[in-house]
Amino acid sequence: MQKLRKRLSRVPVYYDMAKEDEQIKAIAKERNEIIGQMIADKNKGLNTQEPKKRIKKEYHCDTLEQ
Questions:
Q1: pLDDT value of residue 61
Q2: Separation CA 51–CA 58 (nearest Å)
Q3: I need a surface site. Which of 23, 33, 41, 60 has the fewest CB within 10 A?
Q4: What digits encode the pLDDT tens for the residues 19-37?
Q5: What is the mean pLDDT of residues 27-52?
Q6: 3-state DSSP call for residue 5?
Q7: Phi, psi torsion values for 24, nearest 5 degrees
Q8: Which segments of 12-62 does DSSP mark as H helices, in order?
C-alpha cells in the first residue's frame, strides 16, 4: 500500500507529505522549547500553578440550568 504524497485537484495542492512532515517537526520543536522553559522556571523557584480540578456537571432530565 502506498502513501499519499500529494493530492491535486485542478491547481491547488490540498495535501503535501513533505509540508506535513515539516509542520510536525516545527510543532514538536516548539513544544519542547516551551516545556524546557517551564522546567527552567520551576527549577529557579518561580511560582507555578497547581493543576486545577475540573468538575463535570452531570445533567439529568430534571436538571434546571441556573
A1: 85
A2: 22
A3: 60
A4: 899 999 999 999 999 999 9
A5: 92
A6: coil
A7: -65, -40
A8: 17-44
**Residues in a beta bridge with 8:** 13
Distance (Å, whole) CA 36 – CA 33: 5
DSSP 8-state symbol, 45: T
3-state secondary structure of 10: coil
What cell numbers appear for 3 in the block? 502513501
Integer angstrom CA distances of residue 11 from 15, 43, 57:
12, 52, 49
pLDDT category at 65 given cuts 50, 70, 90 is confident
Q: What is d(CA 14, CA 7) in angstroms, rounded to the nearest whole number? A: 6
User: What local confidence, expressed as pLDDT, does residue 58 receive?
Assistant: 84
pTM of the model: 0.56
CA distances from 19 to 23, 32, 52 (A): 6, 20, 37
